Amino acid sequence: MQPDISIRDRLPALLALAIPVLCGAAWMATNGAPAHYPLVNLGALALACLWIIGGRGPHTALSRHILLGTLLLVLLSPLFIGPELTSITGDRVMRWVPLGSVLLHTGMLVAPALVLLAARNRRYGAGFLLAGILAAMVQPDAATGFALTFAAVGIHHVTKDWKFGAAAILGFFASIAMALNGEIAPQPFVERVLVEATLQSIAVGLALAIALIISFLVILFTIPFAREGRMALAGLLFGFAIMALMSNYPTPFVGYGAASILGFGLAFGLHRIPAR
């Protein structure tokens, strides 16, 4: 039996979340955001940290199948229980599920654990990513599509498995189609956060950007996962962040929204998933 991961080993994952979330909460609290915005993010951070400290990965085939099925169901759940908005082009957009008074972006909530499962499954992992991209297409959610695409690129970089390369190519074109139909009007402190903060203060915008870069580097080099898992999670974060910078999509960690914090927190606690 493999030894458990110590608290010290879990520290990088805690830092990868805490640094940008705390910076984002401080920015929101001092720049006129609704009072509950930083509180929601800090509450999500506390829950995520508890799971990171005590979590473990699905160690049996049945538990991995159950987790995968649950993730895909949650990803599709906005089509049945989520609110509906209209995009700038007049298309229906459904990407969120309500949790009390808080809306959770399902792509950010589900994708981190999904890409970690994909990275550990050479046989079917590319199919997991394509299933996630297909679910994003019907919402449509280009941020999740591109994030999963970059995760596929990261896994392919390590494994050289053609299936992940094919998934990245298909995901790229699918995400372009999503981007043409799914853009909505930006919400303050949620979308385009780095642009908004930089317009207020170049120093603040730079600080938030540096916090995200630190998180990216910690994920890429120091969290205690196999290299393909680190590359997948780092690629995923990069995809979400770059889409938030380029268009009207939620900014992970530093913007208002519990989903990215809970989603990456869930993934960071899934230690020692057996490779297949």
TrEMBL record:
Regions that span the bilayer: 12-29, 35-53, 65-82, 102-119, 164-182, 202-223, 230-247, 253-270
Secretion signal span: none
Domain of life: Bacteria
Keywords assigned: Membrane, Transmembrane, Transmembrane helix
Protein name per Swiss-Prot or TrEMBL: Uncharacterized protein
